[in-house]
Amino acid sequence: MTALSLSNISMTFPDGTQAIDDVDLTIERGEFVTIVGPSGCGKSTLLRIVSGLEAQTSGTCEVDRTSLGYVFQDSVLLPWRNVQRNVELNAELQGIGKEQRRDLAQQAINLVNLDNHKSKYPHQLSGGMKMRCSLARSLVSRPQVFLFDEPFGALDEMTREHLNDELLSIFQLEKFAGLFITHSIQEAVFLSTRVLVMSAQPGRIVSEHHIQFPLPRLPEIRYSPEFAEICGRISNDLKTAHS
Amino acid sequence: MSTGQLKIRHRLSAVLLPLTTLIVFLTIWYLYAKFNYDNPVQRRNALPYPHEIITDGFMPINDKVNGLRPILGYMWPTVKVTLLGLSIAIALGVLIAVLMNLSRGIERSLFPYAVLLQTVPILAITPLLTELFGEELGVRLVVTVLVAIFPVITNMLFGLQSTDRSLHDLFTLNHASRWTRLIKLEFPSALPSLMTGIRIASGSAVIGSVVADFFFAKGEKGIGYYIRTRQQQAIQRPEMFAGTITASLFGILMFILIGWATSRAIRNWHDSNLAHTQSSFKIRSSLKGKK
User: Fold this and answer.
1) Per-residue pLDDT tens over the stretch A79-96
2) What chain B residue is nearest to A134 in terms of C-alpha separation?
3) Domain B52-276, architecture per CATH
4) A1-64+179-243: CATH homologous superfamily?
5) How far apart are CA B153 and CA B148, in angstroms?
6) Is A76 on the interface with B (CB under 8 A)?
7) A80: nearest CA partner in chain B
8) What pTM, to 2 d.p., does this model score?
9) Can you give the residue ranges of every domain in chain A?
């Protein structure tokens, strides 16, 4: 089932810079697609268009925006609310009743292993825990399309890999359509069923790689020769796109 | 040095250093009074000895005509005007800031006049105010509100406008209404700066209500009236100082109370508040350790 379909999307900012040029992309439910590209190539802009935060200059974007999850680059938590109440926020804004959203939040909190910290405030959490909280907030509404805007970019390597493992098991459970932005090739390959390479200025999709590792994926596959080989190919594409 | 010892030293210096300043200040005052006050010719312009403010100003404690009781009696109307005026300034200031935040157009049409409120010398418009609002409670409140409202408006507006962009995006993605956005996002975000504004405004409100007594003769008279009427004769000078000190103590009390209310309101989350409890001490002690 097609969850997200972009055709001929282009985006030119009012100052004349062309951020995105003619992007076509279709994502089925149960697919996890990652876009890698240099900074400033318009990856984030593409996500903002999909979510409706920004309007494309031309092209069409078909997606059910009532069932959309969005994880930002930063955790974007309300500092005056504890974990529990932050996780409830999306459901609360969508008008879901108190009892029900508490249950939903609790499920999401369990899913990201934050149960021991649910009464803590954001300033008491580590970067990884904040990101988990942010993830849980989006999970509450069980979205069919999940957008990730470089969510783990600011975390240390260990935490990032750990969260990648967790995200992947959540993906297996929920079977949403994922669109993930990163500039870490390893992260892209580990998480995705498909990796797209994007060039900068203007942002174009220059190549596509299907990742064949079956799910569930063990953390160890990161060190296998096949994994390294795919990373190598993507890295090559990135270099060509950049020059 | 252990952390415990450092903490004690830290607290001790927080008391001892300002105390030293006070002692130096009082010594200079005593010396000045000694050279002038003892000289009958110069008595008219002189300062009383500091201790006379207590013995002749605040004492007796419980007498209908002199001392502390009449001072507190005059203080009460001042307290009322200050609190009422400050409350009006807060309510009105927040409302104006919210309107300005709602649309650029409203902000552009109102902001210059908010600045005008702040820059017009209040004393220069007292005759006009008398014409418009009389000389009783009403005009005292107007003066208090006029001097206190600007910091409330600017700080609240600044707070509303500095709400995190990504948080706004999050609310947009959830199709939040303008009202929900205001109540659940912008208001709490603006709370720390609003409290700063109220803190500044509280000092101004005390000044406003005291100054109003100097210019408006009718209605319930406050501490300003007491101070003004005890200025004329040198013999009453200690009473004047006692009145001034009481008014200042009230200002300080307001400042402390609002500071306390602020840290209660934002105790769980705001950086400024967390800094007091955790990091600032650590930073200072680590700096000392480096020497």
Assistant:
1) 999 999 999 999 999 888
2) B170
3) Orthogonal Bundle (1.10)
4) P-loop containing nucleotide triphosphate hydrolases (3.40.50.300)
5) 9
6) yes
7) B269
8) 0.83
9) 1-64+179-243
